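User: two proteins, same treatment. go.

Assistant:
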Amino acid sequence: MFERVLIPTDFSRYAQKMQECAAEIPGIKEIVLLNVVDAANPMNLEKKGWSYDSLIEDAKARLDEQAEHLGYLGQKKGLNIKPVLKVIVEPMSGADGVNLNRPEAQAGIELIEGGGTGEAIQKAADEEDVSLIIMGAQGKGLVEGIFLGSVSTEVLRDGKTDLLIVRHQLLGKKDDASTPADFCRNIFSRVLITTDFSEAASDATMLAKGLEGMQEILLAHVIPKGKEIDEAAKKLNALRDELAAPGRKITVHVLEGNAANEILSLAEKQNATLIIMSSQGKGWLKQIRVGSVTFDVARRAKQPVMVVKPMKR
C-alpha cells in the first residue's frame, strides 16, 4: 500500500524517532529521507557564519548520517533509504541574470528557485513518486490551540499526497518504556475511519480497506442535531460489509453534533490508534485541498491522523 514514503527531517531527535517509527509500517520498502535547506533565509546563514558552503555541507553530512542510521535499522527488512537534499535559493536577479548571493550548484543537491519549505516537500514527493508523506506535529505553541507546526500545516493545506501526521509526544513519552518501533507496529490496530459518504470519503475508506494490520475499525459518521439517524446507520452498515475481513472487528457509530468535536471525542473514548479522514468533504470546491473538519481534527487530535487526498478522476 505505502511501499515508498517521504519523510522530511530537520535533524531533531523527534525527526529521528519518526524515521525509526516509519520503518515499522507494514509493507514499506523505501524511505525517501528529505532535508530542505532554506539558504534564502538570512537567519540560517548567520548561524553558519554567512557561509553557503558551510550551511549546505553541514546539512549534507547530517542527512547522510541519519540515512546511514536508518539504513542500519532497516537492514533486516531490506528497506532502501534514499537521502535527498534540496536547497532553497533566491530567484535569479539582475540584468545579467546573476545573483551574487547564490550558492554554487553541487552534485546530488538540487537548488530550488524561491518558494517555501512546504512547496519543496511536495515537489520532492512528486519527483520521487511517493504514496505517503510522514510528518511530525509539535505540541501547543505560543498561541493556545495551535498544535501543528507551520511546515506541517502548509503540507496539510496545500499538498497533493496522502499525509500521516504523528504527534511528537507519542514518540517520546517519559513514562512510557515503549519505542517508536513498538508504537508504529500498533498504529493500524484500532482505526477510526470517518465518512460523510462523499466521493472523496469513499476514496479514503477504500484505501483503508487495503491497509495491513487493522484488527479493529471504528466506522463513524456525524449528523446535525435532530436529524434522523436511520439513513446514516444504513449506509454505515453497508460500508461495514465492504470492509469486512477475517479476524477484523468493525463497529459503526452515528454521532450527533459538531463533526470535529464528535470525532475527537470518539477517538479518545475508544482509544483509537489512528484516525483516517478524507481531505475533502461534501460541498467543498475541488481547488480547496483540505476541508475545515479535517483541518480541525488534524490540528487538535492526540492520535496520529492520516489525511487521504482524493483520487484523480
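Protein 2:
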Amino acid sequence: MIRVGIADDYPVVLRGIEAILATCPDLVLAFSAESITQLMSCLERDPVDVLLCDYAFDDDPQADGLDLLKRLRRQHPAMKVIFLSAHAQPQIISSALELGAAGFIGKNRSDFVNLPQAVCSVHHGHVYLPQSLSSALLGSLFNVNARQTGLAQLSERELVVARMICQGMSISAIAERLNRSPKTISNQKVAAMKKLGVSNDVELSRIFQNLGH
C-alpha cells in the first residue's frame, strides 16, 4: 500500500483528487491539507510515501513553490513530491526536478485521470511527467541546447564582442577598447547574432543570461 497526502488551497481540487485516488485499492489517502501550515502539521504526525502538492498557494504567508520543495526535501527526504500546477512553465518544471521533485502534473482532467499511475510510478523511483508537460520541457531543453551549440560556434572575437554588447557597451566603445574599427566590431556582432538566431540586443543578452555567460 502506498500512503498519499494531498495539499491544495482549493477544496474542489482536493475533493476531485480524493475521488480519483479512491478508485485505486493500492493507494491509501493519509490526509488532505488546504494550507502549507496544515500540510507541515499533517506530515509531522502522519508521514506519507507520496505527496501531491500544489505549486502555488494563493495568499499563504509561508513560502511555496521551490522554497517549499527545499523545505520538504530537507525535513522528509524519503517522501516523493509531485507538484500540481495550472500554469507550469518549462523553466519551473526543470528547476523543480533538479531540486528533487518526483513529478509535475497539470491541473486538468486529462492529467488528473492518470494520478494513480503517477503516484505508483514515482513511488517506484521514476520521474513522472504527463505527455503535455514532457513535450513542453523537451522543447525548451532543445532550444537551450541549440543556443549552446550556436554559442560554441562563435569565434573568440565574436564571443568577446557579444559579451561586451550584453554588458551595455556601444559599438564605438568596444572598438576603442579592443583597438579595432567600429565596422569590424559591427560585423562581428552581426555574425554572432546570426549564429545565435537572435535579432536584437535584448534577445542576445537573454541568451547569455540563461546560459550563465
